[in-house]
Each structure stands twice: as structure tokens, then as C-alpha cells.
Design a protein that fits this description.
With 159 residues, the chain is mainly alpha-helical. The protein is 69% helix and 0% strand.
Length: 159
């Protein structure tokens, strides 16, 4: 007896090398294709394109469909975009046939994650550490510069 309810998979499992590649592409290329019409969509596709090719096969109709889906509007915090990317790729790895599921996931998560990520990493942390570093620098303490550089590096490591 076969289980017809078992989800079909793409046949490819993401590896640690894939995750490292996604992280590098996200850090260095996510914002390069930013535009006013679709904002971060081209960067999002750039981030996951090698994995999509491995999952769907190069030049297949399924790959073209998913590439078109991933070039639709996308805009979230640079610090939390990889959360959406990870959930998206997990769904696609499991072989979900529903492009609407992936699209709904992206639409549902990009707003809340943008608010959280931008509030913490683009406003709160720079304001606190910037004020401390500036006060120390004005008083002639070179440690102020190191605090600012250290905070910036910590934010990039978290990203």
C-alpha cells in the first residue's frame, strides 16, 4: 500500500556548503539589485539561485516558474532576510507544489521582520553605541572609536 499523502520532494537536500553560500551572497549581494519597483527581489533571487538550480534543475519550467515568483516584490530588514530565505528553501526542499505558499510566507514575514530588524539593528544599537562612542571621542578617549567599530562588527556578525 502506497501513501499518496506523502509530500513529493525535490530530491536535493541543502548542505552546510549551501548555507555558507547563501550567507555570503546575502551579506555581499542582497542589496546590489535594489530598485524602487521590486526593492530587494533581485537580491533575494541572487541569494538563493544556486540552490534553486540544484533543486529544480537548470533550465526547467519549474525553475523558471520559481525564478519569476522570487522576482516579485520583496522588502525586509537586511538583518532578518535569511530567516525568510531559510523557511522558503525548506518548503521548496520538501517539494511543496504551492507557489502561493511560498509567496504567502514571504509576504507575511517580510513586514514584521523588517520592523523588528530595523528597530533593533538600524536604530537602537547604533544610537546607543554611537552616543557612548561619540562622548568618549569628544573627551579625547580613543576607546570611543574601538567601541563604535566593535559594535558595527558585532552587528555584521549577527547578520
Amino acid at each position: 500500500m502506497t501513501n499518496s499523502n506523502k509530500p513529493k520532494t525535490t530530491g536535493y537536500k541543502l548542505t552546510d556548503a549551501d548555507f555558507k553560500q547563501i550567507n555570503r551572497r546575502s551579506l555581499f549581494g542582497f542589496q546590489l539589485g535594489w530598485n524602487y519597483e521590486r526593492m530587494q527581489a533581485s537580491g533575494y533571487l541572487y541569494t538563493i539561485l544556486p540552490q534553486l538550480r540544484k533543486m529544480y534543475g537548470d533550465g526547467t519550467p519549474e525553475l523558471k516558474k520559481m525564478m519569476k515568483l522570487h522576482t516579485q516584490f520583496f522588502n525586509t530588514s537586511n538583518f532578518f532576510n535569511t530567516i525568510v530565505t531559510g523557511i522558503d528553501l525548506a518548503l521548496e526542499e520538501e517539494g511543496t507544489d504551492s507557489a502561493e505558499t511560498v509567496n504567502g510566507l514571504k509576504a507575511g514575514l517580510m513586514g514584521p521582520l523588517a520592523a523588528i530588524g530595523d528597530a533593533i539593528f538600524a536604530a537602537l544599537i547604533p544610537a546607543i553605541f554611537g552616543a557612548i562612542a561619540a562622548d568618549m571621542a569628544v573627551k579625547g578617549n580613543p576607546l570611543g572609536v574601538l567601541i563604535w567599530v566593535g559594535a558595527s562588527i558585532a552587528v555584521m556578525i549577527f547578520r
